Each structure stands twice: as structure tokens, then as C-alpha cells.
Amino acid sequence: MWFFFFIVTLAALVALHFGWRAKFLAQQNLATSEMDVFQKQTQQTSVDAKAQQQILFNSMLEGLLLLDRNKKIYLANRAFTEFFNLKTELRGKTLVEVLRLHELDGLLQRVETEQQVFGHEIKLPELSERWLQVNAAVITNSTGEREGTILVFHDLTRLKQLERQREEFVANVSHELRTPLSLIKGYVETLLDGARNNPEVAERFLKIIERNTNRLDFLIQDLLTISSLESGRMKLELSPVNLHSLAEKVFGDLAAKAEAKKTSLINELPELIANGDVNRLDQVLANLVDNAIKYGGANGAVIVGGKKLENGALEMFVRDDGPGIPPESLDRVFERFYRVDKARSRDQGGTGLGLAIVKHIVHAHGGEVWAESESGKSATFFFTLPATTAA
Ligand code: ADP
């Protein structure tokens, strides 16, 4: 009996053991496979994280450069390679090997001693001027040991260009204001000093004063127009505009000027209807016709014409038979204060802003403007207006 009981107990224990072992092994297998999955996931996650990091670095507008403790390149993002137009593998090379910019080497030495340098500006020795701002700092580990250096490059070129444009603009405006002002001042002083007692001289001087105050007035009007166009404050009031009638109106406004130079004004514009701001389009045509009279030859002709293009857009032109514009100035005449012949423009009372205003207004309408010229023979200014929905 005892023997039987012992055998049954032993069998039960063996069964229990094997059952438990099988279960344990099954659990272990499960755990191992879970571990595999976990490890794979971890590996995948780190691959993903690396890829994401790479995407992040390469999508940065700033150039990023990481140097190891031996000042060798460890990582350089896409913006960095593009700033310096680098095509080869950079990893493991020194900065001087890659860029040959000794200024940057000097900067690295400064970072060594100062730990960080912010706002260091460098001008790249290229044909087209390029400016970068570099911020650099030493990377240290938890024990304070130097692990490497990080350098971040910002492209300052656009900012520098804007700064220069602003400075030039202020210098030009001051110059344009000063010239007529000093003339007015000079003639007023001469009149006060006694010239007023001679009626003939007084009248001549007063006419000069009047011409220069007009010039100041035009300049200030043009400056205000440019400023509201550039700031986007000027809103277009669109309505159907008959371009033939508009040209007639502009010719009427400038008739006396054309008459004085014996210039014929010819309106070849068909009855095209544009969807535009009538006052602004008036300004465009008036500026172009005024220039054509001003710079065209005496006893010449100014023709205004146009047509509807296949895509439905309208293309207008203003042509004169003057000395034309040299090829290198054809694009530049639309810049503020750019003049082919400074003395001639000022003589004619020009502000140097007319074509810049024309360009702004045409662009605001969604059109294009350009000049063509046959040197010594004629200049033609073209502008387009997008297809109109107006009847
Ligand atoms: P401005 O007040 O000097 O006329 P604009 O901006 O209207 O200023 O024109 C810029 C420059 O373009 C002029 O100074 C002149 O040198 C040149 N220009 C403009 N229109 C003509 C033209 N029809 N023929 C020759 N040169 C022209």
C-alpha cells in the first residue's frame, strides 16, 4: 500500500515537474521571442531615430557642423555642404582641409579659449557676395571634458543686401532732396541780397525756384507712392478699363509737354478692356509716355499700341524714336534711382522713381514689364495685364 502510494506520489511529482518544465520552457520561448521582437524594435527605433535625425539636420536652413575632439568633421548637414558647394565626403577631415578658410581656423581657436563664440560674420570669397554668421560652442561631457565643437552657420546674404539697399535708398533720397533744396536756398538768398530789385532777374530766379519746388513735390509724391506700393498698403480697385480711352486721356494730360518738343502722340491701341485699377494704370501709361517724350528725339513720335495675346492676356507698348537704352541698362532702369544719364534725367526734372513705380503697379496687377531698345534709334517699353474677365 505504502509502495503504491509512493509510486503514485512520485508519478504525480514527475508529471508536475515535466508539466511545469514544459510550461517554463514555453514561457521562456515566449520570453525569448518577445526579447527578439523587442531587440528588433529597439534596433528599428534607433534606425528610425537616426533617419529622423538625419532628415531633421538636412531640413535645417542653418548649416550645421559637428567636430570631434580632434577637430575632425563628425557630421555636416546638407545646408552646410550647399553653403560651401562641397561635393566630397567630409567625415574625418579637418575644416581647413575642406574649406581652406583660415578665418574659420582662427574662429575655432577662439572657441577653444572662450568656450563659445556668437555672431561671428564671415564673407565668402566668391564672385557673388555671400555672408554667413557663425555661432560656435565647445561640447563637453558630464565630467567637463571637451568632446567636440558645434558650429551653426546662418546665411546673412539677403539681410546684408537689404541693409545695403536701405542705405543706398536713404543716401539717394537725401541727395535728391538736397540738390533742389540748396538751389532754392541759394536763389532765395540772392533775391534777398538785392536781386529782387531787378524785375527781370527776379522773375528768372523765381522760375528756377518754382521748378525746383515742383521737383521736390514730384519727388515726395513718388516716394510716398513707392512706399505705399512696397508696403502693400495700396489696394487696387479693379474695374473694366478701356485702354484706348485711357491712352487718349494720358495724351491730353501730356499734350503741352509733347507740343513743346514737337512730338506727335499716336494712339494705336485697339479698344481693349483690362480688369485693372484705372488710376494706377493711368500712372503706368503716364510715366511711360512722359519718359518717351522726355528722352525721345525732338520732332519725333511716341506710339502707344497693344494687342490681346493667345492666352487672353493683354500686351501694351510705348515706343519712342529717341537714343534708346544700352543693353546693360535695360533691366536696371526699373531700379529705384537708376538713370542711364544722370545729368539728362535731372535736367528733365526726373525723380528716378518713375519706372520703379511702373514695375510695382504692373506686378500688383499680375503682369510683367520690360524694355527693348535698338541703340541710337528707339526704346520700347512693354507691359502685360493678365487675361480679363471683364466684358
Ligand atoms: P527718371 O525720373 O529719371 O526719368 P525713370 O525711373 O522714369 O526715372 O527712368 C529711369 C531711367 O531710365 C531714366 O533716367 C533714363 O535714363 C532711362 N529711360 C527711361 N525711359 C527711357 C526712354 N524712353 N528712352 C531712353 N531712356 C529711358
Helix-strand makeup class: alpha+beta
Q: What fold name goes in the CATH topology slot of the largest domain?
A: Heat Shock Protein 90
N/C terminus separation = 118 Å
The tally of helices reads 11
CATH class of the largest domain: Alpha Beta
* Uncertain ranges: 1-21
| Strand element count | 12
CATH architectural group of the largest domain: 2-Layer Sandwich
Bound molecules: adenosine-5'-diphosphate
Helix/strand layout:
Blueprint: H1 2-59, E1 63-68, E2 73-76, H2 78-83, H3 95-99, H4 102-114, E3 116-124, E4 130-140, E5 146-155, H5 157-192, H6 199-230, E6 239-242, H7 243-253, H8 255-260, E7 264-267, E8 273-276, H9 278-295, E9 301-308, E10 314-320, H10 342-347, H11 354-364, E11 369-374, E12 378-385
Parallel strand pairs: 7-9
Antiparallel strand pairs: 1-2, 1-5, 3-4, 4-5, 6-8, 9-10, 10-12, 11-12
Helix pairs in contact: 5-6, 6-11, 7-9, 9-11
